[in-house]
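Example (one chain per record):
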Amino acid sequence: MTDTMTREQRVVLTIAVLASFVSFLDGTVVNVALPAIARDLGGGLSTQQWVVDAYLVTLGAFILVAGSLSDVLGRVVVLRIGLVGFGVASVAIAAAPTAEFLIVARALQGVAGALLVPSSLALITSTFRGPAQARAIGIWTGATTVAMLAGPLVGGVFVDALSWRLVFLVNVLPIGVTLWLLARLGHRDHRRPGARVDVLGAVLCAAGLGGVVFALIEQPNLGWGSPLIWIPGLIGALAFAGFLVRQRLAREPMMPLGLFRSRNFWAGNLATVFVYAALSLNGFVVSVYLQQGAGLSATLAGLASLPSTILMIALSSRMGALSGRFGPRLFMTLGPLVMAAGALLLLNVRGDFDYWTQVLPGVIVFGLGLTATVSPLTAAVLGAIDSERSGIASAVNNAVSRVAGLLAIAAVSSIVGGALDLDGFHRAAVFTAALMVLGATASFLGIRNHLSRAE
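Predicted structure:
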C-alpha cells in the first residue's frame, strides 16, 4: 500500500505510527512491571494502582485539550513537545528513587502522552484524502495493535532479565527516531486563527478526576468517614460537574455536549464506559495476580494474554466487515456477553495453579468477545457523527475509554476486598463479567443499525 504514497506521506505515516506506538506501548508494558515496582519501592496494592492511574488521570484530562492546542500551536509543534516530554518523563521514571517520585513522573508522562495520539491522527487526516486516508488509518491502527501485543512481552522480558526500570526506557529509541523524522519532514504547520485553549476546562477535568481517584484508591486505608477521603472526593465530584457546565457554556468546548444528541454516539460511549472499565480491571488484576498469587515470572505473565491479542489481530478486520454488513448492534451485544463468559471462566483458577486448564480457556473466550466488540463499537461511535467532526468524536470516545479504565483501577481495592489474593481475584472476575453484561445491555437497548446521523 505504501508504494503509492508520496515521500511526504510515507514520512508522515511513519511519524504518526511511531508517536502513537510509544503511547500505546507504555500503556501495556506497565502492568507486568507492577509487582517488581512494589517490591523495589514499597507501597503494596495502592502504589500499583497509583502507578497506573497517575498516568491515566492526566492522559484522560488533557487528551481532549490536545486538539485545540494543535490548532493554536500547530500539529508538528505539539507532537514535538509531546515526544520530548514523554522521553524526559520516561527517563525520570526509570531513575525514580521513591514511589512518590515515580507517581509524579507518571502523571507528567500522561500529560505528554495526551499530546501524541490526537496529533498523530491529525497529521494523517491533514496529509491523506479519500481512500488513501482510510488505508493510512488502517496501517496506523494495525501498528498500535502490535504495540498492544509487544508491550506485555517486552515488559516481562525486561523485568525478568534486566530491571523494571529499563521497561520505561524502551520508548526512548522510537522517540529519538520520530524527532529526527520530524526535523526532516519540512512539513508546513497549520494553525487556526482565533483558536483558543480551554485552560479552565482542562483544570476542572484534571481536578475532578484526581479528587475522585484519590478517594477511591485511599478509601480502603482510611475509610469513607475520614475527611482526607470524603473532602477530596466531594471536591473532585464538584469539579467534574463544573467541567460539564463549562463544556455547555464555552464558546469552543473541548467536549461538545451536542455530540451526545446522536443516539448511537451516546449509547456507544455508554457501552464504552462499561466495556473499557472491565478491560482495564481485567488486565490489571490478571497481570498482578499471575505474578504475586500464582508465582509466574513477569515474562510468563506477559505471555498469558497473548492468545487473546493474536485472535484480535487475526479476526478484527473480518469482524469489522461483518459489522458493516449486518450493523454493529448484534456484535456490540454478543461480544461483551462472550467476554463476560470468558471472565467467569477465570473462577476455575485455584490454589494449585495450572495456566493451561484454568486460565487459557478464559483468555481465548475473552479474546473472541473482544474481537467481536472493538471494531463495531468504534464504527458505531464515529459513524454517528458527521465526518468533519470525526476527530473530536474520536477524541471524546478515547477519553471516555481512558477515564473508565482509570476509575476501574482506582476501585480495585474495594472490588477485591483490600487484597489481591485468590478470593480477591475471583471477586474481580465476577465484577468484570457484571460490567460486560452492563455493556451488552447498553448496546442492545441503545444502539440502532443504519441510523441517519441526525438521529
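Caption: Residues 7-41 form the longest helix (35 residues).
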